[in-house]
Structure formats: C-alpha cells, structure tokens
C-alpha cells in the first residue's frame, strides 16, 4: 500500500542525531482588504520599504498581495515568533486595512482593476512587473491573487553523511540531490495527505468565477458562495493556482540532469498558444516577457519544487546544475484560517515528519505518465477527499485502498519519526501531532476543510473572512514584538529603499554609457 519503510525507520532510530538541525523557512501570502471586505486598491505601503529588495516584506503578483518571509531557522518556536512579528508590524502599519485570512480571494467586483505589483524603474524591477503582466494575460488576474503558504525545508548535512554515506570521495551535489529527488517522488505519490489534512478552501466566492467555466459540480449557498460538499482545497483544483498545460512538459524527478534540462527547455520552447498572443499589443506595450511555455522558471507551478539559494543574476536551474539541490519548497499549503499567521505549529511538525519519511522510504523512478496518474489521486482528494469511505489507488495499481487505511499506516511510521524528534525537546510535541492528526483520517469532519465548511455555509465566506481578519488585526495591534525590535523594521525598510535606488542608479549609468557609445 505504502512503501515498507521499516528498515529505514530502524536505521533512523539507531542514528537519531542525524536529523538534529532541520532548517525551515516560511513564505506567507495574504491579500490586503478594506474594512468592507473588498480588495484594497491602495499601493504597497511605503513604510514597508521596497518590495523589490526587502528581505521580509514584499509583494507577489499584485500590489494588494502581501508576502511575509522569514529567514531560515532551526527552531520552530522562534520561526513562528518571527512570523508573528512580521504580522504584528504589518497590521499596525496598514491603517484601516486588514489581511484576508483565506487562500481563495475575497469578493472582487466584475470590473475591478487588480494593480500589478510595482518594483521601480530598474531593469530588474521592470522585468518583474512585465512578468506579472504576462501571467495576467496568460492565466487571468484572479488566479494570480490566490494566496498560499510555502514551506521551505532542508535536512542537515549530518543526515546525508550518515544516510547516504556521503564522504570526500563522493559527489556531495549528486548524492544530496538524489536524496531530495527521492523525497519529491514520494511527495508526489502521497503528498495528497497535505490537502486532505490541511486544505482550507472548500468554497469560493461566486465573484471568483468571472468569465470562467468549470466541470466541477458546484453547489450554491444562499449567501453567494460556491462549494463542493467534500472538497478540501479548491485552491489546488482546476480553477485554482494550477496550470494543467504544464503537465505536458515531461518534467520528472528521477535525476537532477534531466530535471534541469526539462526546466530550461520549457523556458526556451515557444508555445503555440502564447505565440498567438504576441509580445506587445497594438500600442507597443509589452504583454508578456516572451512567447515560451514558461516566461521564466518561476512560472513552473508545482506542489513541490527543488531549490537552491541563487547568486546575483543566476537562474535557479543554473544554481541547481552547478551546486545541486539545497532544500525543497512545499507549495501545497492553503492559508490556515484558524491561525492568525496562516500556519500552525502542528502543520510544521507534520511536514517535518512527512518529509523525513519521504526521504527514507523507497521511491522508484517515476515517468511523466506516472506523475500524471498521481495527479488523479490529488484531484480526487482535492474535490472529494472528505467523502466517507473514499478510496484511491497507489502507483496506478488496480487495487484501491481506503484513504483512512493509508492514513493509519502512514501515521504508524510518522509516530516513530516523531519519537526521535521529541528526544531533542522537553515535550512530546511531534507525537501529540500524530495522535491528533490521525483522528482526521478516522473522521474527515475534523480536517481543516471539514471544520471550516459548516461555518462558511452558515455565515458566508465574506462575513467569515472579514470577522477573522478583524479579530486577528485586533490581536496583533495589542501585542508587542517578540524577537524583533521596531528599529529592526525601520532599518530593514531604509536598507531596502537604498538598495533599490542603487539598482536604479546602476541602470542609469549603464544607459548613459550605452548612449555615449552609440554617438557617431
């Protein structure tokens, strides 16, 4: 049913220190809204500094889509305290505006203009805005303002040295990269447990479907909401933050060389669909960066991505090719509306255990057809995951298994990992998470979406989201900073503004030089 990881778990239990020092980072997106629950139309607040160069507070697709970013951390409590401080600072500097506490957008007027994120006059800043213009024209602005939480995760070098036999005679890049790719393959096969447990978008505002068609059998509520009775994460569905045309890219995760080659090919291969759009409109305004399948590598929408910190001006694929995979970016998390900061400690602890399991459980190679077949399991869980007695198949076999049975077997393994991780702390926090979340498989109504949908059906998506946004703003407005200081934010804003000015000044100097050299 699931890979037999008993031997790997026994090894881990005899080498507990190998997983001490897990490193994590969080990127949380949230829409700014007005007190009436509608999307804010104001620019990104100047007091936050430059979204182009700020290390903690930036924007994603739109001016109204905030993104709060933590540094990498090996302590969960400190990580969440840092993220909370970012929310406290943002709340206190948004005036009357609020942060929308859900993934799917608030009510959007039919003709409302969604302002693309602005990053200044530098060539880098202009490119980032033009890239977003391309996203808008390719996929529509509404899809691009869907918010999520990205969880960045890396295992310590000590793990790879012990587990993979890493030594000076072997290539660190190749062995660690192969280990992360094994993790990713298992994630594709069983990662649907993430939307099952934590999916929190079983419904959408009817305004989200402007001009869109869908094969999903939506039900209508009296308060202008569309929902599926057993859905977990419409954010990950066919109407969500997904590009199904990318399924044809043949990007697999069996070895680093093939992954990098396929990623580069996608950014260099013209798309028939995007060629018809052209690069500029009739007024010579750029409408996309290029006509390739992917404008840039960031356009690859996946529920998990292999990553490496890049150097200045370096493409992600080049960094991976030269130095290998450094961490993974988990992208399947909805905003947790039950948490003021969009994510809870139990989710982090689950992801720690699950990703460790994915790294050590057997993961045969998987081809593009296999990946598409795993998507069927994801789709089933996303749209019908909470149906009692729901079954899925594993690795395209004819035999179907109960989701609850798979969950029980998985958590039997995760609990063993949790015991190891709890040995590093005073309290059995990981084991408590296992005990709590395992109940979700016994009773789907306990899942995040199962708890949320009855509230939405009763009060409506707008009223529920607005009530939570007001509650969280009130909370943050009365709390003191925990790990940061006010001057930390002031200095970070000044530094970001200065760095943007330096980029723009450098571009000006280059332009002057080019102009001088073009004079006869």
Give the helix/strand layout.
Blueprint: H1 6-14, E1 23-33, E2 57-59, E3 65-69, H2 76-92, E4 98-99, H3 123-139, H4 141-144, E5 149-154, H5 157-163, H6 172-190, H7 193-198, E6 203-205, E7 219-220, E8 225-227, H8 256-266, H9 272-277, E9 304-307, H10 316-323, E10 327-333, H11 345-360, H12 368-384, E11 391-393, E12 400-402, H13 403-422, H14 429-442, H15 448-459, H16 461-477, H17 486-517
Antiparallel strand pairs: 1-3, 1-4, 1-5, 2-3, 5-10, 6-8, 7-8, 9-10, 11-12
Helix pairs in contact: 1-13, 6-11, 8-10, 11-13, 11-14, 13-14, 15-16
Description of the structure:
The chain has one domain: Creatine Kinase, Chain A, domain 2 (2-Layer Sandwich). The mean pLDDT is 93. The strands form three sheets. Strands 1, 2, 3, 4, 5, 9 and 10 form a seven-stranded antiparallel beta sheet that branches. A three-stranded antiparallel beta sheet has the order 6-8-7, with helices on one face. It starts with 5 loop residues before the first helix and ends with a helix. The chain is of the alpha+beta class and 520 residues long. The chain is built from 17 helices and twelve strands. Pfam families: Glu_cys_ligase. Belongs to the glutamate--cysteine ligase type 1 family. Type 1 subfamily. Pathway: Sulfur metabolism; glutathione biosynthesis; glutathione from L-cysteine and L-glutamate: step 1/2. Residues 12-380 form the Glutamate--cysteine ligase domain. This is Glutamate--cysteine ligase.
């Amino acid at each position: 049913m699931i890979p037999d990881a008993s031997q790997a778990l026994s090894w881990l239990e005899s080498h507990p220190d190998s997983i001490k020092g897990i490193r994590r980072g969080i990127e949380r997106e949230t829409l700014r809204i007005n007190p009436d629950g509608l999307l804010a139309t104001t620019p990104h607040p100047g007091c936050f500094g430059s979204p182009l160069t700020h290390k903690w507070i930036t924007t994603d697709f739109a001016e109204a889509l905030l993104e709060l970013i933590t540094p990498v951390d090996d302590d969960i409590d400190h990580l969440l305290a840092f993220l909370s401080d970012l929310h406290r600072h943002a709340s206190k500097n948004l005036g009357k505006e609020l942060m929308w506490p859900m993934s799917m957008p608030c009510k959007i007027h039919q003709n409302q203009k969604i302002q693309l994120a602005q990053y200044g006059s530098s060539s880098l800043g202009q490119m980032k805005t033009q890239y977003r213009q391309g996203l808008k024209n390719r996929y529509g602005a509404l899809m691009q303002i869907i918010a999520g939480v990205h969880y960045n995760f890396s295992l310590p070098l000590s793990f790879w040295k012990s587990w993979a036999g890493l030594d000076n005679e072997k290539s660190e890049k190749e062995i660690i990269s192969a280990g992360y790719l094994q993790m990713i393959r298992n994630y594709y096969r069983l990662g649907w447990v993430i939307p099952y447990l934590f999916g929190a978008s079983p419904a959408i505002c009817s305004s989200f479907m402007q001009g869109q068609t869908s094969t999903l059998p939506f039900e209508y509520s009296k308060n202008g909401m569309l929902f599926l009775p057993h859905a977990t994460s419409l954010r990950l569905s066919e109407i969500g933050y997904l590009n199904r045309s990318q399924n044809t890219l043949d990007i697999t995760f069996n070895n680093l060389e093939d992954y990098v080659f396929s990623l580069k090919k996608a950014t260099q291969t013209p798309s028939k669909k995007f060629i018809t759009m052209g690069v500029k409109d009739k007024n010579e305004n750029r409408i996309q960066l290029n006509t390739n399948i992917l404008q840039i590598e960031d356009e690859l929408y996946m529920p998990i991505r292999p990553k490496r910190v890049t150097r200045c001006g370096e493409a992600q694929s080049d960094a991976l090719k030269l130095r290998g995979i450094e961490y993974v970016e988990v992208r399947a998390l909805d905003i947790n509306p039950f948490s003021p900061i969009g994510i809870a400690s139990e989710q982090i602890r689950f992801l720690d255990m699950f990703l460790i399991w994915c790294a050590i459980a057997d993961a045969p190679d998987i081809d593009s057809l296999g990946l598409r077949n795993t998507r069927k399991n994801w789709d089933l869980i996303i749209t019908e995951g909470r149906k009692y007695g729901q079954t899925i198949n594993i690795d395209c076999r004819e035999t179907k298994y109960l989701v609850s049975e798979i969950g029980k077997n998985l958590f039997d393994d995760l609990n063993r990992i949790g015991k190891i991780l709890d040995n590093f702390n005073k309290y059995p926090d990981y084991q408590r998470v296992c005990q709590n979340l395992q109940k979700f498989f016994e009773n789907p109504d306990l899942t995040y979406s199962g708890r949320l949908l009855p509230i939405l059906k009763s009060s409506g998506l707008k009223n529920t989201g607005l009530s939570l946004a007001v509650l969280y703003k009130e909370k943050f407005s009365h709390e003191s900073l925990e790990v940061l200081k006010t001057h930390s934010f002031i200095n970070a804003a000044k530094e970001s503004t200065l760095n943007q000015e330096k980029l723009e000044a450098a571009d000006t100097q280059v332009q002057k030089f080019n102009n001088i050299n073009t004079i006869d």
